[in-house]
Amino acid sequence: MPTETVYGLGAALDNETAIAKVFSVKARPSDHPLIVHIADESDLRFVAQEVPLDALKLARSCWPGPLTLLLSRTTNVPLSVTGGRATVGIRVPSNEFTRALIGKLEAPIAAPSANRFGKVSPTTAQHVCDDLGHDVDLIVDDGACSIGVESTIVDFTVSPPQLLRPGGIPVEDIESILGYSLQLHDGLTRASGMLETHYQPLCQVVLAYDIEHATTLVSELKSAGKRVRLIHGSSNLPVYAATLFSQMRQADRDQIEAVVAIIPAPRGLGMAISDRLRKAAGPISLV
Ligand code: TXA
Ligand code: MG
């Protein structure tokens, strides 16, 4: 199903068979929890037990949109969805079709990104088809995702709240709504998006500080005989975010061996972009 961030692989929250299929199709370990998508804020109490006032404040300003709140779950959320945890990630996606679908189903939809585990997230229906085409029942094509990086995850089960994953809503925006700074996560790998490598294409991802550095790296890699390409869009963060994953996928399709990407300053969307790039590059990146 389409969302404004990336395409999701959905299962109704009350359908254990479909939930199990999501894990098997993605080849996702069963202890990696899924985000629960609700149609609007009024469904929050159905899935979350305690909703701190600050969490509600964020929900009211950012939903529908790319913000996931981590809260304590109600028994309406099966443990299969939360990977056995007492907490659940919840968001209201802004895609109209998907919200209407949740409404018609009369059940929230648990959905991870619709890619195989550890690979680059899909931002078009074609990407989903390329990855999972034979293994899913239906792909709804609503064009390219407008944001292109996954939601920002904020954990409200700890105090003060922590940022678990930078994403489509800049941390600065969240902090200005809350009126205080978010803590960075405490080092426990609680979100798979927090593993050191994730979002990896087949080609090597080489990181550059700026355009000069990138140009040098491109010529060095070319001289070493590699098929290399520069990832474009870094001067415009919304465009960079919206096209990053599809450029990585295109490079793989074109059998490019290495892509060079400029790491943006960690401000605004730059924080999520730089997080995804570092994870795509893996532990041995140049920057
Ligand atoms: O933008 C998005 O969030 C997209 C679209 C489809 O909504 N979804 C997405 O899902 O990125 P996924 O499964 O690829 O990433 C969800 C992240 C994972 O890193 C997962 O570990 C974390 O959220 N997460 C979900 N529930 C959690 C929980 N209860 N505790 C800790 N982390 C959780
Ligand atoms: Mg994912």
Structure description:
The protein has 287 residues and is an alpha/beta fold. The chain has two domains: 11-184, DHBP synthase (Alpha-Beta Complex); 204-281, 3-Layer(aba) Sandwich (Rossmann fold), CATH 3.40.50.11030. It has helices spanning 16-26, 44-47, 53-62, 79-82, 96-105, 125-132, 171-178, 211-223, 237-253, 270-281, and strands at residues 11-12, 35-37, 67-72, 87-91, 109-111, 152-155, 162-165, 183-184, 204-208, 228-230, 258-262. The strands form two sheets. It has an eight-stranded mixed sheet, with helices on both faces. A three-stranded parallel sheet has the order 9-11-10, with helices on both faces. It is globular and about 60 Å long. The protein starts with 10 loop residues before the first strand and ends in a 6-residue tail after the last helix. It binds threonylcarbamoyladenylate and magnesium ion. The site of magnesium ion has 3 residues, from loops. Threonylcarbamoyladenylate is lined by residues 3, 5-6, 8, 32-35, 66, 68, 70, 82, 85, 87-89, 93, 111-113, 150-151, 153, 164, 190-193.
CATH superfamily of the largest domain: DHBP synthase
- Outline, from the CA principal axes? globular
Biggest pleated-sheet summary: 8 strands, mixed
**Domain count:** 2
Topology:
Layout: E1 11-12, H1 16-26, E2 35-37, H2 44-47, H3 53-62, E3 67-72, H4 79-82, E4 87-91, H5 96-105, E5 109-111, H6 125-132, E6 152-155, E7 162-165, H7 171-178, E8 183-184, E9 204-208, H8 211-223, E10 228-230, H9 237-253, E11 258-262, H10 270-281
Parallel strand pairs: 2-4, 3-6, 7-8, 9-11, 10-11
Antiparallel strand pairs: 1-5, 2-5, 3-4, 6-7
